[in-house]
Amino acid sequence: MALTFSSSPLSPPFLFLRPIRNHPKFSISIRCCSSSPQPMDDPQTKKRVVVCGGGVIGVCTAYFLAKKGAVVTLVEKSSVACAASGKAGGFLALDWCDGGPVESLARASFNLHRSLSEELNGPESYGYRPLTALSFTITESGSSSPSGSKSSGNSKIPSWIDGSARGPRTIGTTQTTAQVHPQLFTRTLLNTAVEKYGAEVVIGKVDQVRVEEGRVGSVVLDGGRIIESESVVLALGPWTGKFDMFASMFRVYGLKAHSIVLQPKDPAIITPHALFLSYFPQVGKAMDPEVYPRPTGEVYICGMSSEEEVPDDPEQIVGNPASIAMLKRVAKNISSHLTEGEAGVKAEQACFLPCTNDSVPIIGEVPGVKGCYVATGHSCWGILNGPATGVAVAELVVDGRATIVDLSRFSPARFVGLRKVNV
Ligand SMILES: Cc1cc2nc3c(=O)[nH]c(=O)nc-3n(C[C@H](O)[C@H](O)[C@H](O)COP(=O)(O)OP(=O)(O)OC[C@H]3O[C@@H](n4cnc5c(N)ncnc54)[C@H](O)[C@@H]3O)c2cc1C
Question: Where is the composition biased (Low complexity) (predicted)?
Answer without folding.
Answer: 142-159
